[in-house]
Amino acid sequence: MWMNNRAWIYLIPSLALLGGIGLMPLATMINYSVQDSFSGDQFFWVGAKWYQDALQSPAFWGTLGRTVLFTGISLTLQLVLGFYIARKLFHVQKFSSGLLSLLALPLLTPWIVVGFVWRHAMNPDSGILGALGTAIGAAPDLNSVIWVWVTIIAMDVWHWTSLTVILCYAGYAAIPKAYFQAAQIDGAGTWAVFRHIELPKLRGVLVIALLLRIADSLMIHIEPQMISRGGPHVSSTFFSQELIRTALQEFNLGEAGALAVIYLLLVVPISWALYRAMRGAGHG
Amino acid sequence: MGSRSGKRWSKSVLLYLFFMIAPLYWLAVLSLQPNTSSLARANLAPDPLSFENYAFIFSQQNWVDGFANAIIYVAINLLLTLVVSVPAAYAFSRYRFVGRDQAFFFVFVFRQIPTAILIIPLVQMFGAFNMIDTHLAVALAHCLFTVPISIWILEGFISSIPRELDETAAVDGYSHGAFLLRIMLPQIRTGIGVAAFFSFMFSWVELTIANVLTTVNAKPIGVVMRIVAEPLGQVHIGISSAASILMLFPGMILVWLMRRHLARGFSMGRVSQ
User: Fold this and answer.
1) Which of A213, A256, B96, B117 can pair with A247 through a Cys bridge, CB separation 3.0 to 4.6 Å?
2) Residue A183: count of CB within 10 angstroms of its CB
3) Average model confidence (pLDDT) for chain B?
4) How far is A176 from chain B (nearest CA, A)?
């Protein structure tokens, strides 16, 4: 590493771009969060009112709880399944690198398409999964909380697990062959190899996958909106959906600003902790 | 571990592959049959085969334009992203300077901001500059998400290239700019590909920002699909499926171009130590 503050010259274009486009909107939202507005153009100071309202509102905690619950379930499934599939691809599967291309397709599918195809797939008469369910006596019903949650989680697992697969497969491909040969000579079993070679070597990519997925998962909105429009009642309304509804439909900029700030206070520390973990696991 | 020499088909991988491909296959079926069939029953193959959905899309100027619009702003976004990311990644990789760690996280945090927070202020800001409904506005807004991830990826790739390369080039009389363009860039081709993949994985699939920043001239096809769907109260399955299939093609082309790099490239030069 060369000690040199001239490095900042290389950073000017990117920081100017990010700062120019990103900082003003962020500052605007923070500014809104301490004001109330009449007819969209007259603002007056209300201090911490919106924050107090939000933090004292059961609806807010419900939305936050659902978002965290969804993220927890969905990311756990994605990371475990993704790791497992990558392991099978690496150790067992023929033509594995060719198959990766096929597996990557859901990642590049527009989010609105993801929501659209999964919603129609669950139609009890004409949907591919729905008709199957009806045939075996378990017709899906998108007016039921359980079915909506099952659909949204299955959809998210379908949409994003391949990211973990690709990252973990790359992690596997980077483990020197000598490790596995040495383990084989020592007579190490599958579990020992997994526990002492694969898991430590893949820690870095797993943290990367978590870091990439966690913010997206906490901000999910287009897909569940397509599936259930947040319902029945509010049972599948997540944080970003609530934020968009408050800002664009109720046009309550103050409350939306406060929600945005609370959201950032939640996400930034998590990202920072994962970022530190990643720098620790990687080369720093 | 004895299976490493004789590879075969893994049942779990096949099952997973089926799970990944089946919804897309079914989407193709929906797009290739009349809407009445799609509404009546769940067909496993088009019955009867019909191209009327595609014919409708290609007969409508706003759908065709929507497709072109999305491609234009994604292309602008990729170009902008790479132009500003390569020098930044180089600085983060090669120099230790005051505020390096903080600057790196500052850049990264933009990636974690939910799009929902930004829509209103972005509309106001681009409105003030008279840039609503331009491809550039969408491309710039998407840069907030694509630049951080690209810098992060490229930094990993540049760090995996020995520093001696820089020093040799300096001795040979290359200026910094010429070195970056003519020597470093070819070395990090895979990294550029992976960065482009991740940028595309945001810019092409995202619609919330693209929707609010456009009205007519820069509307992407995904939004056109939603507008057509909503006044009818329900989605037109056939046409929406055909539009969806068309929206998959750029992704398929990208995956095809990246096929050799998917296996190793995504270690991002970070896990190889």
Assistant:
1) A256
2) 18
3) 85
4) 9
For residue range B228-266, list pLDDT tens digits in order.
555 445 678 888 899 999 999 998 998 888 887 777 667
Query: Could you give the CA distance from residue A146 to residue B135 in angstroms, rounded to a whole number?
Result: 41
Question: Does residue B104 have a pLDDT over 50?
Answer: yes
Q: What is the dihedral of CA A106, A111, A114, A119, to 10 degrees?
A: 170
For residue B12, the chain A residues in CB contact (below 8 A) are 84-85, 88
Summarize pLDDT for A34-75 with one digit per residue, the tens: 888 766 667 778 878 888 888 888 888 999 999 999 999 999
Cβ atoms A109, A158 nearer than 8 A: no
Residues of A in contact with B16 (CB under 8 A): 81, 85, 103, 161
Question: Which residues on chain B are in Cβ contact (under 8 Å) with A22?
Answer: 110, 113, 118, 144
CB-nearest partner of B205 from A108, A173, A271: A108
**Alpha-carbon dihedral angle through residues B214, B218, B222, B226, given to the nearest 10 degrees:** 50
ω before B48 within 30° of 0 (cis)?
Answer: yes
Phi, psi angles (nearest 5°) of residue B96: -105, 120
B78 near B200, Cβ under 8 Å? yes
Report yes or no: A130 and A171 within 8 Å, Cβ to Cβ.
no
pLDDT tier at B5 (50, 70, 90 boundaries)? Answer: low
CB nearest to A21's CB, from B3, B143, B256: B143
* For residue A232, cis peptide bond before it (omega within 30 degrees of 0): yes
Q: What amino acid is encoded at B79 in this protein? A: L
Confidence of residue B141 (pLDDT cuts 50, 70, 90): very high
The shortest C-alpha distance from B205 to chain A (Å) reads: 4
| Segments of chain B assigned E as strands | 95-96
Torsion, Cα B120 A27 A111 B72, to 10 degrees, reads: 80
CA nearest neighbour of B204 among B95, B98, B69: B69
Whole-Å CA distances, B68 to A74, A240, B1, B63: 34, 29, 50, 9
Question: How many A×B Cβ pairs under 8 Å?
Answer: 326
Region B69-77: mean pLDDT is: 94
Q: Closest partner residue to A174 among B7, B109, B272, by Cβ?
A: B272
Residue to substitute from A26, A113, A278, interface B, most B β-carbons within 10 A: A113
Do the Cβ atoms of B248 and A7 come within 8 Å? no
Using the 8-state DSSP alphabet, how is residue A18 labeled? H
Answer whether B42 sits within 8 Å of A130, measured CB to CB: yes
Asked if the Cβ–Cβ distance from B117 to A98 is below 8 Å, we say no
Report the distance separating Cα B12 and Cα A190, nearest Å.
17
